[in-house]
Amino acid sequence: MKLSFSAQDETFREEVATWMGENLTGEFAQMRYRGGPGDEHVFVEERKAWERKLHGGGWTCIGWPEAYGGRGATIEQQVIFNEEYARAGGPGRMGHIGETLTGPTLIAYGTDEQRERYLPGILRGEDFWCQGYSEPSAGSDLANVKTRAIKDKDSGQWKISGQKVWTSLAHESEYCFVIARTDSESVGNKGLGFFLVTLDQPGVDIRPIQQMTGTSEFNEVFFDEAVCADSDLVGAPGDGWKVAMGLLGFERGVSTLGQQMLFQNELDEIVRLAKVNGASQDPALRQRIADAHIGLRIMRYNSMRMLSGGGDDGSLQKEAMIYKLYWSSWHRNLGKLAMDVMGPESEVLDAAPYELSRLQAMYLFTRADTIYGGTNQIQRNIIAERALGMPREPRG
Questions:
Q1: What share of the chain is helix, strand, coil (3-state, %, to 5)?
Q2: I want to staple 261 with a disulfide (CB 3.0 to 4.6 A). Which of 86, 123, 152, 380 is the partner?
Q3: What domain of life is recorded for the organism (predicted)?
Q4: What is the pLDDT of residues 243-297, one digit of tens each?
Q5: What does DSSP say about strands 204-208 and 233-234: parallel, antiparallel, or unpaired?
Q6: φ/ψ of residue 264, rounded to 5
Q7: Residue 248: CA atoms inside 13 Å, Cβ hemisphere, count?
Q8: What is the pLDDT of residues 41-66, one digit of tens each?
Q9: In angstroms, what CA-CA distances link 185 with 86, 146, 181, 192, 262?
Q10: More reliable by pLDDT, 171 or 2
């Protein structure tokens, strides 16, 4: 891992900063620093337009190989892009799932036909994706999925039935990658398939879930014999677990850089507020702000370390297994810090229509961080069993 950047990298940094300064203006200026956790409901159409603007400048999917429309950017350049994006106040990315999860997974595991069909829409910022993993009885325990995929003998198509939950931005997406059981007799991580499913079709019902923030970033998605072409199965029937684990590697890979971009913006807002309202004069709060800054730096360096040893198939070093536990606990504590810096104002809404401030919404949203994507308890089991080789927890 390198902790410094070459002269060529710094030239790239200047290119990013210049473009952002020239383009995050006019109609896009209102979106600066918006669209992060708990704030995803704002400026949705404008942020979709921003994705197309990024594409026009050559700034979508920069880490993809050039053969698929990317820049083939190095890890160092991807770090730089996310740093400068954050510094300029770039809004939360609507194309995040497609660019950092769907795209790399198809590049690693998909067919030429699948790549030709789906990658251009992601690259252009025109097609948006969501993730169909969790279910009511299979949240942290992904291998317990109940959603079924049955192949129709006459048409050769797959018919998918089941329920997915906590599906972020499904109501704003065109496609969903879905883990479903292709073998009705299988259990655990055997007999699964990884499907690319069109959401705008009969048999798909998307129901928003209202959160504590009053918004509905999450959704339930019900599939009632929704159709998926055989050509939209990634890998063979039964390969679903392998593909799903590869995707989770990408989720803990370059995807983390965009997440840290949003964290930095939130921390900057907390520091600004502390200076304005005098909270920065409180020694205890100053120490907690310093601890948050240090924690974010550690997060960055650990990400660069784990990315420096990753594979093109999403595989990462064992150190990557600490990432979700680390960031979720850090972010939850950042939410608490935000409320303490706000002081009594944290419990007050200014005026009608009584909308939450960004920091209030962030605090409420962070209460879920240590639950979704695998609870902290599950993450500790993963670290113990898969990284450290300790005995598996007894299953009752």
A1: 50, 10, 35
A2: 86
A3: Bacteria
A4: 998 998 777 666 677 788 889 889 999 999 999 999 999 999 999 999 999 999 9
A5: unpaired
A6: -65, -40
A7: 20
A8: 899 999 999 999 999 999 999 999 99
A9: 48, 11, 9, 11, 43
A10: 171
Task: Note whether 232 and 260 are same-domain residues.
Answer: no
Domain boundary residue among 211, 238, 265? 238
The enclosing H or E element of 359 equals helix 358-366
Same-domain check for residues 347 and 380: yes
* Owner of token pair 């599906």: 167
Report the C-alpha gap between 386 and 396 in whole angstroms.
20
List Cβ neighbours of 290 (8 Å cut-off, separation of 6 or more): none
118 occurs within a structural domain? no
Residues in the chain: 396
Same structural domain, 201 and 266? no
Domain assignment of residue 349, given as a range? 252-387
Give the number of other CB atoms < 10 A from CB of residue 347.
9
Q: Among the options 99, 135, 251, 266, which is catalytic? A: 251
Q: Judge whether 109 and 119 are in contact, CB under 8 Å.
A: no
- Written as six digits, the tokens of 358 are 């960004």
Integer Rg of the chain from CA = 21
Phi, psi of 59 (to 5 degrees): -115, 15
Closest CA to 260 of 20, 90, 382: 90
Q: Is the domain of 259 the same as that of 232?
A: no
Q: Which residue has the tokens 């898969």?
A: 386
- Concatenating the DSSP letter of every residue in 253-273 gives TTHHHHHHHHHHHHHHHHHHH
Residues 90 and 168 in one domain: no
Domain membership flag for residue 103: no
Name the residue with tokens 């350049």. Answer: 77
**Among residues 41, 73, 94, which one ends one of the domains?**
94
Quickly tell me which residue has 């950017």 as its tokens. Answer: 73
Distance, CA of 100 to CA of 122 (rounded, Å): 10
Number of domains in the chain: 3
Q: Based on the fold, state whether residues 377 and 257 are members of the same structural domain.
A: yes
pTM given for the model: 0.89
